[in-house]
Amino acid sequence: xNKIGIMQGRLTPSQGRGIQFFPFGHGEWQEEFVKAQKxxxxxxxxxxxxxxxxxxxxxxxxxxxxxxxxxxxxGVKVDHIxxxxxxxxxxxxxxxxxxxxxxxxxxxxxxxTNEIGVKNIEIPILDNSSIRTDDERKIxxxxxxxxxxxxxxxxxxxxxxxxxxxxxxxxxxxxGSSVFKIVYDIGNRVGLGYSPExxxxxxxxxxxxxxxxxxxxxxxxxxIGTGSAKFDEIFSSLASINFKGNFxxxxxxxxxxxxxxxxxxxxxFIKNLIQKYL
Length: 278
What we know:
The chain is an alpha/beta fold. The chain has ten helices and eight strands.
């Protein structure tokens, strides 16, 4: 059965922190679990970013214990981690020292998140971490290959990329491990001009889960159902491949203080599509 989760921070007022952030404010990230439980959401996709990363509860034993306790208390899981850290500081276009440090941080992140039952870590290779040259591609593959022995068999690493579908498939095959998969972001793909209803049929063997987002072509994130994404066609494609993965809400933010209202609307939108097609 397909389950619906949400990106961390979407249930907390932004207060100028942008569209996506780790909610470091007093009690904020903990309160999101309570709100997610109330809304009937299955999981929270945790955000591990560069800013203040050592203060992230994923990074300390005490913090991980607190995460496990709140998962047990609310029943809201943490199946996925979005490692925005590696979008701010990629494995390439950095000096050798930083590259090595990033590889070590990645390996630690794998170890720490496995302790709390995380099934998947998402690595963004888009925007600031977009692969632009063959050398960058080679460095990224080498970094991932050096980390393979540290990744447990019960965990996958999903790439979110701005590459063409053919180039993304090529990259996954060049890494050469079944551990590496794809997280499919609907909004980002339509924003780049790609056709999710076609791409899904090409990439489906590798898709672990889907980010629910909407954008106009070459535009910014807007309310689900008002952009270029053809959701009926997309969910028809998902039905044809018998997709059973999770959907993670990563939608546009509304006014501060209206998070639960907006998320409730988005949940209803996706549930209707699941019931109709899946």
